[in-house]
Automatic annotation (TrEMBL):
InterPro entries: Big_15, Pest_crys_Cry1Aa_dom-IV
Protein name as annotated: Bacterial Ig domain-containing protein
Organism: Listeria booriae
Coiled coil: 329-376, 400-447, 471-517
Occurrences of domain Pesticidal crystal protein Cry1Aa (ranges): 235-295, 301-359, 371-430, 441-501, 511-570
Lineage: Bacteria, Bacillati, Bacillota, Bacilli, Bacillales
Keyword Membrane among record annotations: no
Keyword terms of this UniProt record: Coiled coil, Signal
Pfam families tied to this protein: Big_15, Endotoxin_C2
Signal peptide from the UniProt entry: 1-29
Amino acid sequence: MLNNKMKKAASIMAVAALIGTSVTTPLGALTTKAAESQPQSQPSTLAVLNPNLLSQDISVSATNSKRFATNWNLTSGAAYTTLGYDTNGGAVATDAVGNIFHLTNASMSMQTTFKARTNVAVSQTIDTEIGKEYTYTSRFYLDESVGPGPTRTMVNRNITLQINDSTPRTLIGLNQGIVNGYEGTFSFVATSTKTNITLASIGTSSTRDYRLFQTLQSIKKSDKQVQQDAIALEQQAQQAVNNLFNGSNPANVIKTGLTQAEIDAAQNLVNQVTDETKKAAFQKNLDNAKKQLNDRIDAENKAQDVVNNLFENKNPNGNITGNITKDDIDAAQDLIDKLANTTKKAELQTALNKAKQQLTDRIEAAEKEAQDNANEAVTNLFENNDPDGDIIGNLTQDDLDKAQDLINKVTDETKKAELQSSLDKAKQQLTDRIEATEKEAQDKANEAVTNLFENNDPDGDIVGNLTQDDLDKAQDLINKVTDETKKAELQSSLDKAKQQLADRTNAEKEAQDAAKASVNDLFLNNDPTKDIKATTNQAAVNAAQEKVNTVTDPAVKEALQKQVDKAQAQVSARAGITGVISKYTVGDMYITGTYTGPATALSVDVNGKRYYGGDIANGTFKFYVADKNLKAGDTVIVNFYDSSKQIRTSVQVQVFEPLKVTVADYKIGDGYLTGTYNNNVAKVGLVVNGTKYWGGTVANGTVRFYAADKIRTADAEAVMNFYDENNNLLASKTIKIQAAYTGEITTAEFTLGATYITGELTGDITQTAISINGKKYYGGTIASNKTYKFYVLDKRITTADEVIVYGYSADNRLLSQKTVTITQ
């Protein structure tokens, strides 16, 4: 760190002051002078590109007290001992006799006092460019209070400038007067990359010391050189930009093989152009080249990705993927054809050719397999595998459909027609067989149904001894009827019989169910083998007895009565102690509650294992269970003991899970919001964009809330709130809303005799179907480019048919339909 004296010396801006014959001027004056010296025709930015090459730092070296810190070098006629600072911050060079020169800062100007007895010189080596012209400029004037007389003449001294080893040039001559100051200017052409500049004060001894001011000193490229450099730079920039294009013409496309490095090099040159008009023109062409290169690279990358995606693991040296199609090959070929880089184009074409060949091989193998599978399926429809004979006895429509599916996969039209002819024979034979079978099925079903009723009258009452087995047998026979009208007629009669039997048995069943539920509710865990609940009282026993009295089945009634009698005995024996359990949630440390009566001790049963302990006093109790790891569904009972250490009453503890709620994502157009909860939830509310709605169904751990008229846009803000039976808010869930499915069948085309209906679609359509004169068929395939096709060769479509294509979303919603255009 420089001390204060060093900081003052380091602030001196004109280094030539060290020669003892000049002083620097303040920075503001120097800047003004430099600006005035610039030709008005040059751009102002040239000043930035043409700096003063002379170092302005004259601080003393920290390691050598005889040198400055930078590359200035001080010499004198006699050797000097030190170079340092005085107490006021001035720079002082001293020899054996005394000061050689003294540099101070006084009256806001830099001053140098030099000894008349001593010659002093200062030099610096600067960086230059060979062949370039440079200009040295410096302005001096004497302190009028020091010179001999009003003329302020340099007595016996002059100031010289020397470039390298050339003859020194006199800036201020011997005994020359400088009343109004002197400005020295000199231009030279650099012959080396390093140029030495030496300023000297020389002459014979004088009768007095001199103090000189210097207001300007610099070495810069000459104005002419600056203009030449600017023009050369513009030419280089223009040529660099032009060379990016074919024929070095920016009107053409970029050249083949253009690299980013060439773009960057041209940009560097354009950045240095100072003429804003030319710079803008160069930049416009350069930006065009950048865009073309980026587009070219993007096209190559896209083509590479598409080709790679044809292969497993995106490896063009491997095998093609399992789902590759001719459309995929064509799409890749289109991208490759558009590439300009012939090397990259050839590389990708080689990989694509591999994919083409592999796909061809795969298709041929698939066709052979398809023909073999279809031929086997068709021959298996006939006895002795002979398509000219009769169909096998157990042939079904499913067998025909499977054979048809296999035939549909055959692409060789001749072989396909041969197989279809044999299949059509099998279809006709099965139709004939089914018609005969149908008549027999109708007769048997009709007989079975009428036998269910008195006097065989389906409009009357069922027979007295009708059983469920009779109904099941009749149902089996109806199920074999295929004529929908007849089947519906028979089913209607059977349903009447079912309802009458159900009505007959339901009354007894309802009585038994009600009695069992009432009796079970008297006991712990609703289990009559256990003791009665703590809450079971005489009123509960009486209510159960009334329900048991309505049961008519003797065996069931006897069993239920024994259980009621057991509960009655325990209620009669219980007296005195009651307990109320506070709500216990998984994770609570204690089971707590209140009690009445002479209870003196506690125990807790967990899934049949008993634990003793707890604190009971003054009507409250608690029992530590953190180490019992209780969970929902555990059977937990608190037992209260009297002073005789006998259990007087037991109370079951319900273990609640911590509240957990969920709400499913909602898609615009859905009817309901759905969610789940695990306990304590009694009602829910919905808030949509600040508007509150109440309603919904809350039961058995699930929530259902109609929202189609409340949530209408995907950007709506919706929250579902969960409440207990006292309207306390338990939890809130923000609902994720998804946009509704959209899509359109944009085209639907079919040419008579063609294999497929084809067309294009948009949006979220993922499934297709067709209808022909109202009869619907499902299937078809959708390609990644949003085209589809639907196999209809076997449908024999004519121009008189009405054919419609339907588009469905992934959740089977109909999004669009379009009538097929049929052409000859």
